[in-house]
Design goal:
CATH class of the largest domain: Alpha Beta
Strand content: 15-25%
Shape: globular
Number of helices: 19
Strand order of the largest sheet: 20-17-14-11-10-23-22-21
Oligomer: single chain
Helix content: 25-40%
Low-confidence stretches: 648-654
Structural class: alpha/beta
Number of strands: 23
Length: 654
């Protein structure tokens, strides 16, 4: 191993890897050097330590703590510290010992002092005491499988929304799903996007993963909104409702205008109860909300590219932000007010799901990274890799590889902060969810990073065990099932490790085939998994049956990754036999997309395109009010009920 490869290894960078097609690849030396520079930020490699930076203790599993470079004759004193309080301590006569099994679940500091002939030395590490496994949903459906309805919420039509699905539509979908016997609703990410640039519509390229997209707010459900007529929006909303696709520019303009009117009314005449709840929300969200709201104000003042802002605003300085609030208090509070409305409306959906005894409730998707020009990238600069993008090497589906234009956490910096930013992201996602899906869960183990301006990248390793410990802590604390999107180039034994920690697999029928292309039998699927026919990035059943996806890719010059010979696997008998097949798997959650239920041929998103395909804009062909008695929907419900897929009951969140 040469000097560059050794340096890369010290920073957790893999100099070579095997891609999704089984081909061995060596990272170009120039790319390898760039990734080292991006991770190190000019610093020297981490010093060799006796303790790892993070020590993980799983309840129910005895874990040995081992010290490197410690002579056998040394004496060791150790202490577990919570804040300034020592909660356990002891001595060890060797370089490996076991911590007590009865430590409470939580995040602590482990301090050790080593005495030897060479002298006395001390060192500390983060100590993550985790549940043995993430929350398993053991009490829903008494262990039987359930099903949920998957929805792109923005695309829901209704007689009352403003041309973009909203949280009142979600209430209606919960009512519909409960009536059909479903356990919940699966949703695309609800993360905050860029309301001032509404055509940037991908829910997987968020401004912030900590806050919500205000376009999902139902303004007419807000007591402060004066009504469409008084707001002068009656004709515009009627136009938006009738649009074939989501008109993001029009919807955003109407909603922001309505939100301003609601905020003005709240500021002037808001009830004491509403004001008290707003202040409670501000306290709950703390500095993160203040940062997000300040970013939104600064973005409108200085433009969308925060690295080009005046130097005093390029980093979130507390003094400067306090001054900003004093000088633009109403503008900052407006963005806090918007997030309050969104959070409380989503909370109402969670409460309604509980009242309907829906065992899953809301299943929310979490993006793998954030937009480099967004609020999270600005407020978490110390832990973000701003000079590289997450992507994927070539695989069977995307033969040219992928660049997702998203920034990721810096694994070394994240661990140095005790994983606090990662924990905040999980808490925001689980706040109102019965389950979450971690997009590209492989990123807990390693991420493929592409330096800005480069066409290829390399893998950077993350502290997998510590990341899983944080996931398990938050999952059990929120009683939230964790589903990991484990598709793509999966390292050996990673699925087994995730399963051991209680992270459920994500199995897509279109990918579950033998070498000859035949679909694997239902008993091939694991129990702790979500099973589905397709995803938002793949064709719907109707589109797949017609070969629509192959035709669309070829028409715009994209290699479809497969030939028309797959037609031997198609079926002309409709979606119900597929639903019956999936319902026969042992997997505990079956997700049925509403597009498949209705026979929609067009997929929501075509990866690798921006303007060539109407990504994230398609609306459902029918209004929500017409779905309750739709024959396809009712027939699907009968099939799933006959297969024994029924909803159970989870205890409510506190």
């Amino acid at each position: 191993m040469d000097a560059l490869a050794e340096l890369a290894a010290e920073w957790g960078i893999e100099p070579d890897y095997v891609d999704g097609r089984g081909l061995s690849r060596t990272v170009d030396r120039h790319i390898l050097r760039r990734i080292v520079e991006i991770l190190s930020r000019g610093q020297s490699p981490p010093k060799r330590r006796r303790l790892p930076p993070s020590v993980v203790l799983r309840r129910g599993r005895s874990t040995a703590v081992a010290l490197r470079d410690t002579p056998p004759s040394a004496s060791i004193h150790w202490a577990v510290v919570a804040g300034d309080t020592e909660i356990a301590s002891g001595t060890a006569g060797s370089a490996a010992w076991r911590l007590p099994d009865d430590l409470p679940v939580g995040t602590f500091r482990l301090d050790v002092e080593v005495k030897s002939r060479a002298g006395r030395a001390g060192e500390g590490a983060g100590l993550l005491v985790a549940p043995e496994r993430a929350y398993g949903g053991k009490d829903f459906a008494d262990g039987r499988g359930v099903w949920a309805l998957g929805v792109q919420l923005y695309g829901v039509r209704s007689r009352r929304n403003w041309g973009h699905g909203d949280f009142t539509d979600l209430l209606g979908l919960l009512e519909l799903s409960a009536d059909l016997g479903a356990a919940g609703i699966g949703l695309n990410p609800l993360h905050a996007l860029f309301a001032d640039e509404p055509e940037r519509a991908s829910p997987y390229s968020p401004n912030s993963r900590l806050f919500l997209n205000p376009l999902y707010i139902d303004l007419e459900a807000a007591p402060e909104f004066p009504g469409l007529a008084r707001a002068g929006l009656t004709q515009e909303v009627a136009r938006l409702r009738g649009a074939a696709m989501v008109d993001y520019t029009g919807v955003a303009a109407a909603k922001l205008a309505g939100l301003r009117l609601a905020f003005d009314s709240f500021r002037d005449r808001g009830s004491a109860q509403r004001r008290e709840d707003f202040e409670a929300f501000r306290r709950e969200q703390g500095r993160a909300l203040a940062l997000f709201a300040s970013f939104e104000v600064l973005r409108r003042k200085f433009g969308s590219d925060w690295p080009e802002w005046p130097s005093s605003w390029r980093r979130p300085d507390n003094g400067a932000l306090d001054a900003l609030r004093r000088s633009t208090r109403e503008d900052v509070e407006f963005h806090e007010f918007v997030q309050w409305l969104a959070d409380r409306q989503l909370r109402a959906c969670r409460v309604r799901a509980q009242s309907l005894a829906m065992s899953l409730g809301l299943y929310l998707d979490v993006a793998v990274g954030v937009d480099p020009h967004g609020a999270d990238a600005w407020s978490e600069q110390s832990t973000m890799l701003a000079d590289a993008s997450i992507g994927a090497p070539p695989d069977l589906l995307n033969t040219a590889g992928q660049n997702w234009s998203l920034v990721a956490f810096n694994p070394k910096a994240l661990e140095g902060q005790g994983f606090a930013p990662f924990r905040r992201m999980l808490q925001a996602a689980m706040r109102h969810a019965g389950a979450i899906r971690l997009d590209h869960v492989l990123g807990l183990n390693r991420l493929y990073l592409i330096p800005n301006g480069a066409s290829a990248g390399g893998y950077v390793r993350f502290p997998l065990e510590a990341m899983l410990a944080v996931v398990a802590q938050e999952s059990v604390g929120h009683r939230c099932v964790i589903i990991g999107e484990d598709l793509g180039t999966v390292p050996e034994n990673l699925r087994e490790t995730l399963a051991d920690w209680g992270v459920w697999s994500y199995r897509v029928m279109l990918f579950e085939r033998d070498e000859d292309g035949r679909f694997r039998p239902p008993d091939h699927y694991p129990e702790d998994a979500l099973v589905t026919f397709s995803t938002h990035d793949l064709p719907t059943f109707a589109g797949w049956s017609l070969g629509r996806d192959l035709q669309e890719k070829r028409a715009i010059g994209i290699d479809p990754g497969e030939t028309d010979s797959r037609g031997k696997q198609r079926t002309g008998s409709g979606f119900l036999p597929v639903a019956s097949y999936l319902a026969a798997t042992p997997s505990r959650i079956l997700m049925i997309s509403i597009e498949d239920a209705l026979g929609v041929p067009d997929q929501p998103n075509l990866p690798g395109t921006i303007d060539e395909h109407p990504n994230w804009r398609r609306r459902l062909p029918l209004a929500l009010e017409n779905l309750h008695h739709h024959p396809r929907i009712r027939a699907l419900a009968r099939v799933l009920r006959g297969a024994g897929r029924s909803a159970g009951t989870l205890p409510p969140k506190s």
